[in-house]
Structures are given as structure tokens and as C-alpha cells.
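Q: Protein A?
A:
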Amino acid sequence: MAEQRPPAPAGPRLPGRLTAELIMRSPQYMSCIKFYEIDLRGNKIAAIENLGATQNQFDSIDLSDNAIVRVDGFPKLLRLKQLLLNNNRVARIARGLEEFIPSLETLILTNNRINNLQDIDPLATLSKLEHLSLHGNPVMTKPNYRLYVISKLPRLKVLDFKKVKQKERDAAKALFSSEEAQTAHASNTFEPDEDLAAAKQQAGVANGGAEQGAGAMEEDAAASSAAAAATSAPSQEQMVAIKAAIANAQTLEEIQRLEEALKTGHLPSEIRVDGGQAGAGGEANGGKPDGMEVG
């Protein structure tokens, strides 16, 4: 059994960073499965970096209970067989991992944030991967999740701590017999963190939900009617009434509002074409300046 190394002299420790100093003073030991392992648990590490400081001396690296969001950032660790990443925030797995950790046999991603089936596709190039755990990730709720993973990782022996059976391999092969079938199935999975409001808008669904359906239809109908009225040409009587109101308007704002009404033919509420009041800018004598009665 290898002896545990004496702790290195304490160096500067950067919160949330996987530094060479942290690597040098972290516990290193022979695990119960005879893997030489380094314990980097619970250091609030946000990204995998500086693992070159391990000098490719470990069979297992334990990065559990940190804040890692992406599986990437590895140097060439040809000896690494086991990677423990449970209880992090992993949502993405980088492509090309086979170049840096080609001997990886076990990957534990329990209790992370992997959402979609296609998110596990980069693992397909790890030819020696036999043990995988995605337990506690949202991806587990996707239809045919287990069969999809088995179809992508044909060498897998244990998935989510359950042995992969031959009948599962046969079912996976039958269901995902082609790359097109895999792509279609993966793209049809719902992503929980996508913008629900945007999805509803694209689907033509009101944000208020089903209970507002009738009201929304009525409002749409009213808006359509108003739009139709607005685009119709004003009648002769309407034009006379609006022009008279413009002539007697007291402010620029009122003139602009009335000119807009002249364009649309939609009379403001204070203007009538049947002999009533014709504008807020009327004279003091009853608010009926000359020319405002047209009917």
C-alpha cells in the first residue's frame, strides 16, 4: 500500500479555485478498490483546472461536493480511471474528452443538472467507460432515458448503479437503430430551463393560461373591429367636424391628436356629427364654435 504523502507547505488558497497549492496539500491515499486517489471534495471549486499539478499520478480524482458546472479543462491524464463529480452543478460535458482521459472507466455524476439526452453524447467517445451514474439529474425523466444512454455507450456495464442487461441492449438497439432515430428522439425532449413564456408565444398560447382564453378572444375581436374602423375612410361629415375642431384647437397637442383622427376617421369622444359639442377647444359660449355642427 502506498504511503500518504506529507502535506506540502501551506500556500495561498484562492476560494473557489482548483489551484496547484490546493492539489499539493489535499489528502492522497489508496482507496478501498486499490486506486490511488486524491480527495478534492468540498472546496467550492467552480471549474476543473490546474490538474497538471497531479502529474498523472492518480487512478481516481474525487471532486464531489463542489460547484463545477462543466466537465472539461483536463490535461492529459492517461492513468485516470475514475472521476467522481457527484453533488456539483454540472450541466454540460465537453467533447473530445477521449484525448485527455482515454482510460476513464467510471464516471459518477449523481445529483447534477444534466437536462437533455443529447447532453450525454460526448461520453460516447470514451471507449473504456463501463460505469456511469446520472442518478438525480433531470435527464432521468426523459422518455427512454436508460435505453438512449445504453445505445450511446454500448460498452456500459452499470448505469445508475444497476447492471445493464442484455435485453436492455437489444431494446436500445431496436429503438435507436439509426443515428437519425437518436437525433430525432433527443431533439424532442423538453428542456426544463427553456423560456416557457417564449415557448407559449411561439405556440400561440396566451401567457395568462387557459382561464383567460375567452377574454383574450373577445379582446382580439374588439381589437380587430377597432382596426377595421381605423382603416376605413372618414365620412364627409366626420371630416368637416374634425377640421372645424382643428381650427379652434388651443394647443399643439390637441391639433396633432385631431389631425391623427382626420387620417383614421376615428372621431374623439368630444366630437359629434349630429349637432352636439365638437371639441375641447371650443369657445366659452357653450363650447360650440362656428362650423362644428354639421348635421
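Q: Protein B?
A:
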Amino acid sequence: MSNFVGLRLPVMSCHCASTPHPRTVNVVGSSSCSLLNKTFKNAPRRMLLGFGASSFLSHFITNMSASGFKSFIASAKITAGPSVDQILKNVEWPEQFPFKEEDFQRYDESSDSTFYESPRFVTHIDDPAIAALTKYYSKVFPPSNTPGVSILDMCSSWVSHFPPGYKQERVVGLGLNEEELKRNPVLTEYTVQDLNVNPKLSFEDNSFDVITNVVSVDYLTKPLDIFKEMNRILKPGGLAIMSFSNRCFFTKAISIWTSTGDADHVMIVGSYFHYAGGFEPPQAVDIFPNPGRSDPMYIVYSRKLATA
């Protein structure tokens, strides 16, 4: 097997919808792919992933092929082999973080604050996927109105998809658009911050019981810095939940994300938890509501170690 993972632009464009419309849609058909190909053909984009990233993924492809995992690269769906829930079980992680700086480059390196300057009062996953995420939250969140519980909704917007009527004394939203954050009914406070410029979180150590991030982990260009900060501000045993689908603003998603598929994304997010340190082994959950009829929805989560 080659040590390089080829970037298949038209195909991956279909996986991560690149339409500029704020509610991204899955792009289907050759004409759509041709349009995307024309759009990005002159972009300053490397056509192969860095050696570090590709050898990392190849390591797991080799190990998993024996158990029937047919395609670990650029798969739009998990259709064979281990389930998503099993991908992060008993992983033998490389000693060093396997990704390079170039793996976090993007087509559009302009200011994210400018990109999100105008509010987008839309949802970025469809209703069945939202319902699946809300149902998951209802199972793992502390009960509503639990004394002393604090939640941080990272990369927040005008909606957090929490269970209806869910409240805590402190629910903080951290996002890029103030107008959206002001409209979010579950937030008790908010902070406007571009994490790709400043990954340092302005919260005290051991402040939060839960951190959520909905369909935005694919935009983080300094993930290890951010995940280390997440660990710092979580209370011992605190829960961090990263949810993602196969939709994104393609030009703003990082290279390693747009160059790979859903199974790889699980591994990538799992690696952030692992290499940040201080977390329990990450786990994955497939909450895909209606295969073929709605957006897929995946969770990678972990808890801060109870003791150092």
C-alpha cells in the first residue's frame, strides 16, 4: 500500500458540501462535481497529504484490513467492517502526533471572523440529525437545573441542539458571531473568540462539567492547543463531546478533513483527545438516524481523567 493518500477533489467535494449557502447541502451528480472542480482547480492546494498523516492512516488501514475493514480512506459511509463504535477501541497510537502543520491548512485562509461576520440563522445539519444529537445529549447531560453544573458550548451559534427546556445555572457559548450568540436561548453568557487565532480559553481551571462542539471540530487549525485547553477547564471527570457530520464549509475545513472520509474523521478527532493528554481513551458513537435519508451524525467523546 502506498505511503501517500491521494486527494480526490471532486469526490471529497461531494462528501463535504462546499456550497456557499449557509445551510450546506450534499452535492450530488457529475455536473455539481464539475462545478466544484472548476471552482477549486486554481486553489493553492497540495494534492497529497503529508507523509506523517498518510503513514498514520496507512498504519490503521493495514491493521484493520485483516478484520474486513474494506475502505478506511475517503469512505462516505461506514458500510463494511467494524462499526464506528469500534474504531477507537484498543488503538495503538503512534508515539508522536502524526499530523503536520500543512494538514491543517485550508483553501480559504482568510479571517474566520470575516467569514462569519454576517449571522446565519440556519441549521447546518438536517432535522433527523438534529433530533439524534438532542436525544444523545438527553442521555449524557447532567439533569436539568443541577446545582453547580456548568456547560461550555464551543463554536456555538444561535442554537445548541440541547434538549427542550434544558437549563443549567451556567451555560456559556463561545463563537464567532455575536448576533447569533445573543439569539441562543440556552446560553446564560457568551464569549466571541476566534479559536484559530487565539486557542487560549479565558476560563478558570476546572470550570466546566461538559463541553460540546457541534459540526465545527473540522475547522480547528490548532486542535491540540484547544484540546489541551479543554482539558484544563474541564472538572475532573468532565465530559467533552465532539459531534460531526459529512457537511461543512469546504473552503474553511482543514486539509486532513476534506481529504478523508467519515471513518478517518473518527480517528482524527480521537487523536486530538489522545495527544492532548489528560483524557480517558476516546470513544466513538454512530448516532446516524436514517442511513441514506438524512445526514450522518457521529460523536467522539472523552472524559478528563479524575486524577492527574
